[in-house]
Amino acid sequence: MRKKVDIITLMDVPNFGSMLQAYATGILIEREGYDVEFIDYYRINHSAWSKFKIFIFDKSLGNIVKRFIYGCATLLFYSLLMKRLRSSVKNRFKFTRYYRNIEALEKNPPKADLFMTGSDQVWNSVHNKSIDKALFLSFVQGKKVAFSASVGLESFPDNELAETKSLLDTYDKISVRERHTKDYFRKLGYKDTEQVLDPLTDLLLHIKIRYANAITLGTNLLIYTNHVTLHGLQRILHNHTTSGASRSIFPITNNSGRNTIHHASLNPFSLGP
User: Fold this and answer.
1) What is the mean pLDDT of the chain?
2) Which residue among 82, 120, 188, 245 has its CA within the 20 to 30 Å range from the CA of 176?
């Protein structure tokens, strides 16, 4: 019987990138042999109604009639946009019941073999307005990991550092998507923190690498390979560079070298037998 992974990530922002990140994360976890379920965490302060209230109380937008019209337009647009964006993930993956806050998650938590904080800026307390304990899986008693998580900041605010570290201490494994975050986490004492590819980039590379080991991006050449040799590099350049053209080369390798970005893999997060 396949084991189940429950993922929590940002699913309540009107952003195509966030939904694509969630979708790609789900696909990658499935490919590791797990059943995927997303925790349907939709924060109150990100609801369409909260956006409506912002317009109603913002007097700089004009009189109450104008503000009401702006608010109604936003309410309609935001609701339709979020329904469309979320449906792209909901139509593909299972979702838990609807949760609006950490109290609801603590009272009736979902059940899974492994819990995962997914990609995106889940630990950015500026973007999230505060430390969001739900995104740190504080309601979970079992095994939990972070996969390609992002802080979106150079460091945690000083007044939040102690609480944030207490939440990070509960993770069995942490991987992040930015190198500076990996270095910062290791300085904080999380020596096993790894950097992995953004899941959407990883998924796109999976698709492209089936046909080629390099992708042309304008004047840039993105090379993805397990081992970069001089002969291999010459062959790739010959196949992807026209006469007289020059390119910037960005190698992304999948070995254990110190300066590499690892291919996204759940092997370190194995649930065991």
Assistant:
1) 78
2) 82
